[in-house]
Amino acid sequence: MSASFPSAPADWWRSAVVYQIYPRSFADSDGDGIGDLAGARARLDYLADLGVDAIWLTPFYPSPLVDGGYDVADYQDVDPRLGTLQDVDALVLAAHRRGIRVIVDIVPNHTSDQHPWFRAARAAPPGDPARRRYHFHDGSGPDGAEPPSDWRSHFGGSAWERLPDGQWYLHLFSREQPDLNWDDPDVRQYFQDTLRFWADRGIDGFRVDVAHALAKDMSEPLRSQPTLDAALPQDGTDPLYDRDEVHEVYRSWRRVFEEYDPPRMAVAETWAPTNDRTYLYARPTELGQVFDFSLLKSAWSRDSFLGVVRRALADHARHADAGGGLTWVLSSHDVPRHASRLALPPDVAPEDWVRTRGASPRIDLETGRRRARAATLMMLALPGSAYLYQGEELGLPEVPDLPLEALQDPIGRRSDHDLPGRDGCRVPLPWTSTGPTFGFSTGRSWLPQPPSFAPYAADVQTDDPASTLTLYRRAIALRKALQEPDTTVTWLSTDDPGVLHFRRSNGWECLVNFGTVPSELPDGQVLLSSEPLDGGKVPPESTAWFRRPGAE
To answer: Which of 91, 147, 145, 135 lies closest to 109, judged by CA?
Structure first.
């Protein structure tokens, strides 16, 4: 088994830089065109040089890959295309030797339809105990031929699928991802056992997928909920999302986490709009931390960024008893990369841009590059933890125009590409500037990489002092030297409405220029800037860290 960090602070995650690895697209070790665990292990020195504190692996479990691995057929094994349990052990051990912790995804809302439980349920007659682990229901209308309710799938269409025997089962995502019934004791015990299974192998923490959707009100009659999780009542009474009962589940998980030294950490993914209830998941008696995706959803705008950060800091102070640290995210495997997204006009939604395959509007990649670097430097200056998505340290843009025949995301396929899929942010990484897959694999990559990836390759950027990779390395190293437990941020007034400016409690400052002309930088020592300074001024679409004379 893999060594843990018994002497490390139990709350290391509060100020960690966590690097998200989407294994299929990170690095391929065996030439089959699919990234794998051995490939990730081979790139750990790269991640150690980057300076990250932890890696988060998205699902590597056995899966039909209908939803990129989030359709899990076995929670306690590894998909043979990605490796073996021994590969997990080797990866964790190698990461720990480099001072890098390992977080894995847990997908508790649904399984694959190939999970043994669902295969047994589908083969059983209505009313059989095998169906109690999922949500089976009789239909409505004549002969039960209509779905039991108006509930919608996040991947388009009804959230109900009918079996040949006439009953319907619930799936909030793809029809191949049946939702589990968390009122069933078998389900609860299975996931507690799964947490122990991975923690016993040295896994340091868990990212909990769709954490707000486990508990559901299936009492008759089923209530209407046609809006997904976009506009939830803030009292825990929605039939599908953010129900009070879900916290009982996470209290039981916390008891499992506390069986280990140090206790295992967890972070909740909740896509519902951030509100006071969001912080319930971050209570020390539950998961401990929750994602705040507000920055990820923001357009390039001083007022938008300022509003998001101010709200997050105020919420954190107001809910200090919850215990969970601040979290910041700019990109992930679910949204267009921020090097493209931030180049869009404020009135253009990223999903609408992807729907046009990047044709309307055409974005300026140089604008996106500058804004992404500036936004990242601002994010890394904030207190709390920062979650990075693989490839953003290379400045990779979104690939919105992949060939239709290459697309694999069920969101696009199920809607006949009316809904934008997520393939464009999952294109395999370029490690070298040459070769048919830019060093990702010796075979044909599972998603094609555009020729435009060549100048973004890691080998091109490694020794370039002006590259985005170098900026990330310098920023993360400097952040560790400057970061402190105090989460105080002091906003500094400015006469320029295009400038966002704040000071950390130990005296260093961050200035972001959202405007169109250079902004005067106060006297002091420049620590780092996202673009070269212009005669002591911060250029447009740039960020600088600095310290004034006499500051701590």
So the answer is: 135
Task: With a cut of 80, say whether residue 364 has pLDDT above it.
Answer: yes
**268-309 pLDDT per residue, tens:** 999 766 777 888 999 999 999 999 889 999 999 999 999 999
Residue range 244-259: mean pLDDT, rounded: 97
Phi/psi for 392 (5° steps) reads: -70, -25
Q: What CATH number is given to the structural domain containing 506?
A: 2.60.40.1180
pTM: 0.96
User: 92 and 231 share a domain?
Assistant: yes
CATH code: domain of residue 104: 3.20.20.80
Q: Over 291-338, what HEC string results?
A: CCCCCCCCCCCHHHHHHHHHHHHHHHHHCHHHCCCCEEECCCCCCCCH
Encoded tokens for 272:
């519902």
For residue 194, pLDDT beyond 70: yes
Q: What is the DSSP letter of 103?
A: E
Q: Which residues are catalytic?
A: 209, 259
In a domain, 476, yes or no: no
Q: Cα–Cα distance between 253 and 251 in angstroms, integer?
A: 5
Bridge partners of 501, per DSSP, are: 511
Residues 6+ apart with CB under 8 A from 482: 504, 506, 508, 527, 545
Give the rounded percent of residues in the chain with a pLDDT score beyond 70. Answer: 96
* CB distance 54 to 100 below 8 Å: yes
| 186 three-state secondary structure | helix
Which residues, in sequence order, are CB contacts of 421 under 8 Å at separation 6+? 354, 407, 408, 409, 410, 411, 412, 413
Nearest to 513 by CA among 535, 540, 531: 540
pLDDT in tens, 86-109: 999 999 999 999 999 999 999 999
Mean pLDDT of 182-193: 98
